[in-house]
């Protein structure tokens, strides 16, 4: 195992990669390096260590991917920027670590993780100004942690594969901050602020816990053909449209959230949404209804919510209000009357 230095020993990063074997380290001094860089087979456990994302720039001519990992696993890439390629990074293998890396100005996606690529860690990554997604993950069991996704043309984080984790990230200025199209994903302690949509859920078995979702222009959380997911203890506030909106979704548990000061409804169920459980939420000062059930929804359970200063607190169009259960909701106003504990 050998340590190689760029540019002291090798003029380019790619030249150092081609001379490297398993377990080698490439240390890159400050400078602008014309890419692209491809880490192919036979280089498991290779590390490319830049002197800092502000110092080391892999600069693209606009074609292809800036940095590609293919055929080798347990690769580490850290301390550099990838700028100006069609795709910033493509990860096609498993168990790699990408940390303290910036990807900027990609023509399409910032980072793409292929189907079959698993257990990759993206830690303290910044992706901004991509024409498409900030990061798009087709594989399973990948981890996006403590990273930032700003001003990308499509989604900040796009989980197309299952069992992926988004933890303690911030996304702003994207189409969606996070979209879950793969099942059984986790979104924990993230901030989705100032996107078009904060979170979009289009799959089953997801946990959305302790996120801050605010000032998104269309909706805070959108359930679209989603099923069997838990939305727990999030703050959903000051979105310009509804805090949460369900379209053709079913079997969602919405428990212990704070939903306040949204531009229309706090929680809106429509488009054939069925079998929601909405329990123990605090829903206050939304411009329209705190909880709204449209007539095309059915079989919801709505219990022990605290609603104040909404317009009204609960609105349930028939037959939704007739085939759903309302129990011990603390509120002042409902349409029809009788859905609040205090307005019988």
Using brief descriptors, characterize the structure shown.
Nitrous oxidase accessory protein NosD, 14-stranded parallel beta sheet, 1 helix, Pectate Lyase C-like, PbH1, Pectin_lyas_fold, 26-stranded parallel beta sheet, repeat, 2% helix, mainly beta, Pectin_lyase_fold/virulence, 344 residues
Written description of the protein model:
The longest helix has 6 residues, at 13-18. This protein has one helix and 40 strands. The chain starts with a strand and ends in a 9-residue tail after the last strand. With 344 residues, it is mainly beta. The radius of gyration is 23 Å and the shape is elongated. It has a 26-stranded parallel beta sheet that branches. Helices cover 2% and strands 43% of the residues. The chain has one domain (82-335): Pectate Lyase C-like (3 Solenoid).
């Amino acid at each position: 195992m050998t340590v190689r230095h760029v540019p002291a020993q090798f003029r380019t990063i790619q030249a150092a990669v081609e001379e490297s074997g398993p377990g080698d380290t490439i240390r890159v001094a400050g400078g602008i390096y014309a890419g692209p860089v491809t880490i192919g087979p036979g280089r498991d456990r290779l590390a490319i260590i830049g002197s800092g994302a502000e110092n080391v720039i892999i600069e693209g001519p606009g074609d292809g991917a800036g940095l590609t990992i293919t055929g080798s696993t347990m690769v580490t890439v850290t301390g550099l920027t990838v700028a100006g390629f069609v795709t910033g990074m493509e990860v096609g293998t498993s168990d790699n670590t990408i940390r303290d890396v910036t990807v900027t100005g990609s023509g399409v996606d910032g980072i793409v993780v292929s189907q079959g690529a698993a257990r990759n860690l993206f830690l303290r990554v910044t992706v901004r100004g991509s024409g498409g997604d900030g990061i798009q993950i087709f594989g399973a069991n990948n981890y996006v942690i403590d990273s930032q996704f700003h001003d990308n043309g499509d989604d900040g984080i796009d989980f197309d594969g299952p069992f992926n984790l988004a933890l303690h990230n911030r996304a702003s200025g994207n189409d969606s901050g996070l979209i879950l199209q793969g099942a059984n994903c986790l979104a924990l302690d993230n901030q989705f602020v100032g996107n078009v949509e904060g979170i979009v859920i289009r799959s089953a078995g997801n946990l959305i816990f302790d996120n801050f979702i605010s000032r998104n222009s269309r909706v805070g959380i959108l359930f679209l053909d989603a099923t069997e997911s838990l939305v727990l203890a999030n703050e959903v506030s000051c979105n310009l449209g509804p805090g949460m909106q369900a379209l053709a979704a079913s079997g969602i548990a919405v428990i212990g959230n704070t939903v306040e000061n949204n531009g229309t409804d706090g929680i809106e169920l429509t488009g054939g949404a069925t079998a929601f459980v909405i329990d123990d939420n605090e829903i206050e000062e939304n411009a329209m209804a705190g909880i709204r059930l449209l007539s095309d929804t059915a079989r919801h359970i709505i219990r022990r919510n605290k609603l104040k200063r909404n317009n009204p607190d609960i609105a349930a169009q028939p037959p939704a209000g007739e085939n759903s259960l309302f129990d011990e909701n603390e509120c002042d106003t409902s349409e029809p009357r009788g859905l609040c504990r205090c307005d019988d």
